[in-house]
Amino acid sequence: PTNLPETTHISLYADDSNIFAPIPRSTGPDRDAAIATIQTALDTCVQWGDKWGLNFHKLQPIIFSPHGSNSPNINPASPPTLLFRNSPVLFSNTKPVRLLGVWLDQHLSMKHHIEKLVTKVTPRLSILQSIAAHHMGSNKHTLLHIYKSWILPILDYASPTYAHAAHRILKPLDKLQRRALQIITGSSKTASSI
What we know:
Strand content: 5-15%
Radius of gyration: 22 Å
Order of helices and strands: EEHEEEEHHHH
Largest sheet: 2 strands, antiparallel
Structural class: mainly alpha
Number of strands: 6
Strand order of the largest sheet: 1-2
Mean pLDDT: 84
Low-confidence stretches: none
Shape: elongated
């Protein structure tokens, strides 16, 4: 759609479409006007989809706010009122949303995304450990190649999006990297990482 309100932005990638718009933190006319603008953008996108035979069948609204639970934008008692095909849009800010493979929570802490990475990489490290066993005959070069081609791409994908996360949230990834290094080099679990 080309006739979207100026304050809203849309991104399209394959079958994913996203509408981004700012909402003032404090209640009042400015916030009401911002929500009305988002409603206009949503209606415009639905009409555009209907015109071109595209059916938007899934809607995942989320409000990103660095101001904590005190912000009226993420307060369950005062969520924005939006309609999608004449049905109320339910905001569930306790659930992260997935955007092009990246899990985003309301505070952009990236905690959920890191947890997903750990869940996906841990079994692969176990397989790497099995391959590293003496009877398999794998050398360090082979193990490093497997790591770079099968595990590292998972950690590297969209890494700039979570690079800003707090150290305590990124710590599990450090442990994964350390474990992979121990497997590849054959060092003990008690070896220094310095």
